[in-house]
Amino acid sequence: MKQFISALTCLLFIFTKAQMSGNFSLPPDKYKAEVLDKSIQNIYYQLNFISNPKSDSKKDAVCVLQLGEKFTKFFELNTMKYDSLVEKYSHEDKIGAKEMNLMFAFYSKWKPILLRDLNKNLITIQDKAKDNYQYSEEQPIINWKLENESKNILGYTCQKATTEFRGRKFTAWYSKDLPINNGPYIFNGLPGLIMELEDKKNQYHFIAIAMDKKPMQIYLRNEDEIFKVTRKKYREVQKAYHDNPAFFRGPIYDSEGNEVKQQTKSKPYNPIELE
């Protein structure tokens, strides 16, 4: 029961963003990853997005696009820092409030992690719907319409392009001065690096804010607890989880062993891919 109370406290901590305190200990998360490549260039993007379509409140995150010779990877930068701590603590028998607070400082707001295999034209996405899931698919073909407008981003002249993709209309700004067929998240297929991307409803906005050539490992976590499914199955799980999150949590008991009635209220979500 004490372990349950501690686990529940951890969950409350995550959702209320409070500072964890108290004398408790929990077994650390497992960590396992495969290093696939090393980046030769990194592009950093500021992301503003709305995770709850019933609210205008936006979240901010800094994402990074790692460019390697065989693989590229797009994810929130905090994920790397968080993984580093998880790997470190995975070698410990127990962790407590201090370790939980350090990990929470790097808790990512943008969950999807996209890995692109350049040789196979294959993308692998890891995302979260209570548990961690992974699916792979061929890089989708994105049909762009090139426009005549231009503007400057980070000193690079960028051209405008528009598209409709999986339920959203997007405007992109790409630079021919950077002949890199890549961009934020799943988007590519333009004659230059995508420096800015925004959907028509202004619910997702990525813009490049910095670049460097610092070598970084391009890795993918591969613990057994990551469920490997199809994209279709993941989207079904994702919808079911947000429609009825209480079902996925399972029963909860109080300190006397009595089952606590949970709210069945749905959890609004706003994925970047609507279809």
Write the layout of secondary structure elements.
Layout: H1 2-16, E1 33-38, E2 41-49, E3 59-67, E4 71-76, H2 77-89, H3 97-104, E5 113-117, E6 122-129, E7 131-138, E8 145-153, E9 156-165, E10 168-175, E11 193-199, E12 204-212, E13 217-221, E14 227-228, H4 231-243, H5 245-249, E15 252-253, E16 259-260
Parallel strand pairs: 7-14
Antiparallel strand pairs: 1-13, 2-3, 2-12, 3-4, 4-5, 5-6, 6-7, 8-9, 9-10, 10-11, 11-12, 15-16
Q: Give the low-pLDDT segments.
A: 1-17
Radius of gyration (CA) equals 20 Å
User: How can the largest sheet be summarized?
Assistant: 12 strands, mixed
| Number of E strands | 16
What is the residue-mean pLDDT, rounded to a whole number? Answer: 87
Distance between the termini: 42 Å
Number of helices: 5
What overall form do the CA principal axes indicate?
globular
- The structural class is alpha+beta
Task: List the helices and strands in order.
Answer: HEEEEHHEEEEEEEEEEHHEE
Keywords:
275 residues, alpha+beta, disordered N terminus
Textual characterization of the structure:
With 275 residues, the protein is α+β, with helices and mostly antiparallel strands. Helix content is 20%, strand content 38%. Strands 8-9-10-11-12-2-3-4-5-6-7-14 form a 12-stranded mixed sheet. A hairpin with a 2-residue loop joins strand 8 (145-153) and strand 9 (156-165). The radius of gyration is 20 Å and the shape is globular. The N and C termini lie far apart (42 Å).
